[in-house]
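=== How it folds ===
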Amino acid sequence: MEQLTWTGSLTGLNIIFLGLCVMLALAVAMQIVVSFLPASDAQEINPDGTVARRGGLAGGLNRAVILLFALLILVLLIYIVAGAFMGPQAGIFGGMSQQMLPVWIALILTFAVSIHFKRRLGLYGKLFDSTVGMIGFAIVMFWVFTGVFGGLFDLLVTHDSLSQTSGMKNKLPGTPLRSPEEGEYPWFLLGGDNLARDVFSRLIKGSWVVVQIAPLATLFAFMVGITLGLPAGYYGGRLDTILSFLANLILAFPVILLFYLLVTPEIVLTGIPNYMAVFLFIFPLIFLAVLLNSRYYTQPSFRTPLLIVVLGIVGWLYLSLVSTDGAIVATDTYRIPGLPSTIDLFDIDPGVLVVFVSVVFVNSPTVFRIVRGLALDIKTRDYVAAAQTRGEGPWYIMLWEILPNARGPLIVDFCLRIGYTTILLGTLGFFGLGLESESPDWGSTINAGRRLLSLYPHAAIAPALALLSLVLGLNLLADGLREESLRD
């Protein structure tokens, strides 16, 4: 078998692609230059007074940029579609595109269903009216589906991410295996790393690590921040002073130093991360209890059974989260028992638990301050005064009057914070903290590949680009959500 090129039989498209990139770059540069010139008065006005179309040189450049960008996306789609059908005949991109076929199908179905029902889907549906939001959503969902299909179900990987293959150490992308066995994928699409492992498969597996930890850790941080931030902003006074002081105390520490302290083996052996997990993970339980109780307080016959069922299930999940091998905390000197292994739903890897707790602990104070600020502003609105006049309780007002009206900024911050968390996970992996050394997470993979970066850059560049693209997608998604939420 021959070495694969990047585009194989689609080489003819490369000239078109590069030409469009050059023209787009020139058009954007000219757009920047023209923006410093006096504005032209040539523009078309709608009957309602809004600008329908800009005229003159600025308007022409704006249309040119949009057209060139659309053509560039079209060429990329041709690469993907042709590669999905042709496979390795279309080179490395074709092989990867064919492997990612379940992801493309899932993306198409997601967009088709979402666009069809977008008027019924609230803020999520309005996202599809924003070009920036749709691009960000597509990038984010690409990595979500990649993590689920590749990391959870092993549908996308070409080789075992931990297996070493003879003769494939530091091999370039597209290198064929010397003697592949029957049914074995015959190429390393993105080459081999310094331990002769498939970079493409490790990239796919690494996305599952991010998809598992980043959104859930951010969600738990929001549960902590909301549960503490709402009463701090609503009640004020001494409660606000104490909670704000604690939040500022945590934020005063440099983030990397705080992470380093929490994930060092000496701290882990003391059981401190486990105690922190017990404390931080109980906030979703408190949040749900207060939420349901405040909503159905006047219907005790319905509220009580509902609370028993919901809190029973969530409490079971909570104990399963904080229990590992039948113990909540297990040190060399003592052991605090947890759920028995027979009813423990899952055991979290100790390294993952430490990283998870660290991310929640670091993000919670920032979320607290945002929620507190929003509560301070919204509690002065007329509808809050109307709810107080009706005799509604404080928690009902906080959770059913203030919180829904703060959803716009919180949803935007949630997307941005997942991006920050992704970067933090990459940073931890890069420094070899928390996760195991052979973990395929992107930070660890970048760290392993940087040692030979000048000679074999592919092992580090691939996960670095993946990390960059996911964070970029989350930022674009947040911009789209912010744009649409401001229109409400």
